[in-house]
Write a structure and sequence with these properties.
By secondary structure, the chain is mainly β. The chain folds into two domains: 121 residues, Trypsin-like serine proteases (Thrombin, subunit H, Beta Barrel); 108 residues, Beta Barrel (Thrombin, subunit H). The protein is built from three helices and 18 strands. It has a six-stranded antiparallel beta barrel with strand order 1-2-3-10-9-6.
Length: 245
């Protein structure tokens, strides 16, 4: 259900982000994964999604040497909150996937459930996933950003932190994944014993502030990944998108 997001730039497909199938036709990701910050957060030209992407030849230096075990699915619509595109609103994105004939992606690979308003607490287990593609992850040893990786954590007195700005509640978890893992899910095991998506990878941090120039931050690996809590704004975004399907 978790896969690699590709975007077309100048007629060529490039690795972009990570995402998760969350319904029959929708993939959840980050807002900056469906927009272009270099053009005023305009929407991307084209988007494709490869669920369960892996690679054919582990020793290949070609980032396009990939395997698509469940096919390549092109998107037909994508959204970020208006507040994100206009200023600095919550960094969430949803992608509508075009069916393959009569087959829908959610019916092919399944889908994860989303939970909103979940406040993570000490000791709670979380699982982060994505396709990092910067620094170490852009090398042959790092599989050229072609592989799915994970970070498993729990509150351990410093493994992650909770912070808040005006209307945001944000969490940070120790994790080496960096750019490319954006949009990948934060899964938490709730009191009923089930795992739900409670956030997505929005940003990465590292402890070396000398490498924070654009395009070089979080290299060769990151120290932490951050997510915004899915609050009432996410629920409103979700309902607005589903009304347009």
């Amino acid at each position: 259900m978790i896969g690699r997001i590709w975007s077309m730039v100048g007629g060529t497909w490039h690795v972009k982000c990570s995402g998760t199938v969350v319904s029959t036709d929708l993939v959840l990701t980050a807002g900056h994964c469906v927009t272009d910050s270099h053009s005023g957060n305009a929407y991307l030209e084209r988007i494709a999604f490869v669920p369960g992407q892996t690679w054919d030849n582990p020793n290949s230096a070609d980032p396009n040497d990939i395997r698509a075990p469940y096919g390549v699915w092109e998107a037909r619509n994508w959204w970020a909150p208006d507040s994100y595109r206009k200023a600095d609103g919550p960094d969430w994105g949803l992608i509508e996937i075009q069916p393959h004939g009569s087959e829908h992606i959610g019916n092919r690979v399944g889908s994860w459930k989303i939970a909103t308003g979940v406040s993570l607490s000490p000791g709670q287990r979380v699982w982060l996933a994505g396709y990092p593609a910067m620094g170490f992850w852009s090398t042959v040893k790092g599989r050229e950003g072609r592989g799915l990786y994970q970070c498993a954590s729990a509150w351990g007195g410093g493994d992650w932190a909770r912070g808040s700005t005006s209307s945001d509640i944000e969490y940070a978890a120790a994790c080496n994944m960096n750019g490319g893992a954006s949009g990948g899910p934060w899964l938490a095991k709730l009191s009923n014993g089930e795992w739900f998506i409670v956030g997505v990878n929005n940003w990465c941090d590292d402890d070396d502030k000398q490498d924070d120039a654009p395009g070089t931050y979080c290299t060769p690996v990151s120290s932490r990944l951050r997510t915004l809590e899915f609050d009432a704004r996410f629920l409103s975004f979700w309902k607005n998108v589903n009304a347009q399907l």
